[in-house]
Prior knowledge:
CATH class of the domain at 144-216 in chain A: Mainly Beta
Largest sheet of chain A: 6 strands, antiparallel
Structural class of chain A: alpha+beta
Number of helices of chain A: 8
Oligomer: homodimer
Bound molecules: manganese (II) ion
Order of helices and strands of chain A: HHHEEHHHEEHEEEHE
CATH topology of the domain at 144-216 in chain A: SH3 type barrels
Strand order of the largest sheet of chain A: 3-8-4-5-6-7
Amino acid sequence: MSSHIEENYLKAIYKQTERNKDGAYTNDIANELNVKAATVTEAFKKLGDKGLIFYEKYKAVTLTDQGRAVAVKTIRKHRLWEVFLVEKLGFKWDEIHPMAEELEHVNFEELTERLAKFLGNPEFDPHGDPIPDKNGKFAQNKSVKLTAINIGKTVAMTGIENHTPSFLQHLDKLGLKLGAEITIKDVVEFDQSILVSVNNKKEFYLSQEIANNILCK
Amino acid sequence: MSSHIEENYLKAIYKQTERNKDGAYTNDIANELNVKAATVTEAFKKLGDKGLIFYEKYKAVTLTDQGRAVAVKTIRKHRLWEVFLVEKLGFKWDEIHPMAEELEHVNFEELTERLAKFLGNPEFDPHGDPIPDKNGKFAQNKSVKLTAINIGKTVAMTGIENHTPSFLQHLDKLGLKLGAEITIKDVVEFDQSILVSVNNKKEFYLSQEIANNILCK
DNA sequence: TAATAATTTTAGGTTAAGCTAAATATTTAA
DNA sequence: TTAAATATTTAGCTTAACCTAAAATTATTA
Ligand SMILES: [Mn+2]
Ligand SMILES: [Mn+2]
Ligand SMILES: [Mn+2]
Ligand SMILES: [Mn+2]
């Protein structure tokens, strides 16, 4: 299994396990990576043989320490390149994911570490996601969903839980970027949408669906 | 044929054709890419079918316009990343080739063009090799080999014809980097080695072998 | 120019990573 | 608690990119 492909499987398993700590099911990964379930079963067998995941037929898989290390390193590379693309090359946050998806597979430890230093050892990527350090440690960010904030409170936007370009572009249009000060003005009982003001300026309604995908603290 | 592999073949054919305008022979490419001759024959057939090279059995192959465009774009990406690695990340010129060899295959036109701009649209890479512009045009650099310079003349070092780490490291040790002012003090009749001074300071002998791999103007 | 050497191609095989269709196992719901 | 639905695995195929060994072609040299 080429390292490129291996890294994509391990990263997908890592992310799925973050959502559901049982682990990752065949279908989860098939959907994430746009391959068929049968293909994933084969991949699971090989990753199991290599000691990168725990695999038992019909059970959700989880990462071994070794597998997790590969996944976390890949995430580190991905997020560092995303910072590079935004901070140095001026891309917008909705444009960078596909490029980082390729750059993350260039494997030279010295390159990664020098890139990190060049960027000032950032702790968060342009989407507010934490960048693990070279030992695999993530900065703790105890953010909560915007839907959990009470009326009257003001919070700072720290991240998002949906990375699709359409969601990101919509946030841009609303002036909602990382660091924005959001005040909860009201909650509509009928549909749970919320009335917010941003940086004490613009005021508008956000659907529950949107508010659920915004993290803050 | 994955684009990654295709680009490596086309780049190798391009470079070989620069050396020998007949084109590239099966064995040339097999040696360059560390694969067997039979593998190259197969690749030639596929590249021929795709309209990227002109292939006739037992003849040297040459690039079509389309194939040349891919090769030149790959060279552009390679050399831009080399500039990045040296100028921004502080790598030395003997360390960068393997990393650029991977980075060159990340294919997003906008990324390449923004990288170029970020680097100040450089015309030469850290080895003095010209970087084609986005239309595939190379800056003309009419450099000549150091062995072609007469006694008494002073020239500026502009490039090299050998990119091995050991050669590059040796040049470093001698203080010979791009831009260095080299004065030809003497030519030894016995072995054609030359006595040079660098930046009017150090003076030493260079074997013909070495002098042949140094370009200047 | 004929024999030898070198190069290239062909034939046949392997491995990785994907696929579809069918078989099997697990989960859900009547 | 069985039947139906869903999920996973197995079996068998395909394609790309490599390989070795043998055959064919081209180039060199005696
Ligand atoms: Mn990826
Ligand atoms: Mn991100
Ligand atoms: Mn390459
Ligand atoms: Mn170079």
